[in-house]
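Thread: Newbie trying to understand structure tokens

Hi all, I'm a second-year student working on a class project, and my supervisor (Dr. K.) asked me to get a predicted structure for one chain before our next meeting. I've only ever worked with sequences, so writing a 3D structure as a token string is new to me. If someone could post the tokens and maybe explain what I'm looking at, I'd be very grateful. Here's the chain:
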Amino acid sequence: MSKADSQRLESIPAAETIRAIVDNLARVVHAPDETLSLCVLCLVSEGHLILEDFPGVGKTMLAKALARSLDVSFSRMQFTPDLLPSDVTGVNVFNQRSNEFEFRPGPVFANLLLVDEINRASPKTQAALLECMQEQQVTTDGVTNLLARPFMVMATQNPIEYEGTYPLPEAQLDRFTMRIAIGYPPLSEEAKMLTEQTADPPLDALEPVANAADAIALADDAKAVFVEESLNRYVVALLRATRGDSRLYLGASPRAGIAILRVAKARALADGRSYLEPDDIKAVAAAVLAHRLILAPEARSTGLTGEQIVRETLDKTPVPV
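---
Reply by user tm_fold:
Sure, no problem. This is what the structure looks like when written as tokens:
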């Protein structure tokens, strides 16, 4: 048996766990397999996810199904203009009996936090998530409290209604690992969904297929996936190509390269491999990079999208052999 074959066999249990989670999500959310897989890969890479799609396509259902599939704690917040940062992170409250302040944790102290319509809260409240997402901790009145692993923020946005919203700044968008859309299901799947949701909703009967310890183990296994130096340079070449594109006002940051490798490693693990291939990078590049690219006004006016630029960049950038 070759070294590559032995490495592949070592990763098969992890691949089976990831497949089981994706299949469990598919019981509830009628979305393409690739979309559900990307959602799970984001979790395995210890990243955060933006779900940008029309109302009613199952964004909230997807987050709930993921939490139930892993049997982890789940919090949901509806972001509104009057929301305060302390409503997210928690607040110190004076206890008259003990004559001292006590910290009451906010909704962010959960394994999976769903933030509905994140762009409807003020920038100050949006910024309350930055430390949580980047460092997995919350600092209140100079005291730092760590967030438990696994920790993932899933934020939703409506792509058509921007009145009364506060668009996420580039710095915060850059901290979201991926952005995906669920889309409308095919006719047969939508008809099936109507039957399910009006008779016996599958989410109510959904059983866990893994637990928090499994999610942590998957994340650790993904970090151990081997990456050749040529693939590191390939990712850097992709990033630099976006920075030199005249159609972009802002290209991809080094943090974007880190995110690509983390998600690509998770994809390799899901495929039963402990080593990275160029196809892993190409498969996740659009979901990881597109939302980080700021198009120049003239490019935006032509209807060009970040996804199109990423795919063109992939086609033009030589793949290491």
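A couple of things are worth pointing out once you decode it. The mean pLDDT is 91. The two ends are 23 Å apart (CA to CA). Feel free to ask follow-ups in this thread.
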